[in-house]
Write a structure and sequence with these properties.
single chain, alpha/beta, TIM Barrel, eight-stranded parallel barrel, 10 helices, globular, binds phosphoenolpyruvate
Length: about 260
């Protein structure tokens, strides 16, 4: 049976107290969901990671970013060793805001992917084209480049620890326009074909999640598509009750009954 993935990046919106309240409520609401069928993860701010880890058992806690180096002259950065110390086993790399606000390159993203794997973490690699890429018809090329460079040097064995979030830049945030289910499915196919070129059959274990203005009105149609293995949700996930309803709706759409 296909496993579904639901996650949220809390960005820079919740302090420690708010994160813990949110997680406790979400965990209580989703307690009955079969974790063989549904995996749930939340990415709080760095400052809330330790308390988040202490307060939930059935929700995976991930970091929103990290440095590629274990230690050194990297003022303001967080090392994979520091995340390891907190027991954080999941890290997101290459989020659109890291790439486009903080100027991260595919090469840096690749170093972070490799660092996460070296530390035995699961790595969620975010990829997505800009509105201009889409306008000029190069979305598939951009996605392939982000994947080929981002996953350079990753072994077939390590493919088991990789997840991909497809988040078109034009679809994210308050001004975002959600991708249509047809368009998202088309890009997920591009991603899955590229992962197959890289890892062969081992690519079958890599979930590909859609993210970008997912809400209660479009979650069902998106998740129903064959190549969409999960939803990576921002704003519509930041209230536990709303996220719980979205997850249940989506699970029902993908796995009727
Ligand atoms: C995001 O920022 O990764 C995201 C998916 O946000 P939203 O759902 O709010 O567009």
């Amino acid at each position: 049976m296909k496993r579904l993935y639901f996650g949220s990046n809390l960005k820079m919106y919740k302090n420690v107290h708010d994160t813990v309240c949110y997680l406790k409520e979400l965990e209580a609401l989703t307690m009955d969901l079969d974790r063989e069928r549904v995996e749930l993860f939340i990415m709080p701010s760095f400052t809330a990671l330790a308390e988040a880890k202490k307060n939930v058992q059935r929700i995976q806690i991930g970091a929103q970013n990290m440095c590629w180096a274990d230690r050194g002259q990297f003022t303001g950065e967080i090392s994979p060793c520091m995340l390891e110390e907190l027991g954080v086993g999941l890290v997101m790399v290459g989020h659109s805001e890291r790439r486009h606000v903080f100027g991260e390159t595919d090469e840096e993203v690749n170093q972070k992917v490799l660092a996460g794997l070296r530390h035995g973490m699961q790595v969620l690699l975010c990829v997505g084209e800009t509105a201009d890429d889409k306008k000029y018809g190069i979305s598939a090329d951009v996605l392939r480049k982000q994947l080929l460079v981002g996953l350079h040097g990753v072994s077939g064995q390590d493919a088991r620890s990789i997840g991909v979030a497809y988040e078109p830049v034009w679809s994210i945030g308050v001004d975002g326009i959600p991708a249509s289910p047809d368009y998202a499915e088309e890009m997920h196919r591009v991603i899955k074909d590229c992962l197959k070129d890289i890892f062969g059959e081992a690519s079958g274990s890599i979930p590909v999640l859609y993210g970008g203005s997912v809400n209660s009105g479009n979650a069902r149609q998106l998740i129903a598509r064959e190549s969409i293995d999960g939803l990576f949700v921002g704003r519509a996930a930041w209230q536990a009750g709303q996220f719980n309803r979205l997850i249940r709706d989506a699970v029902e759409a993908k796995i009727p009954g």
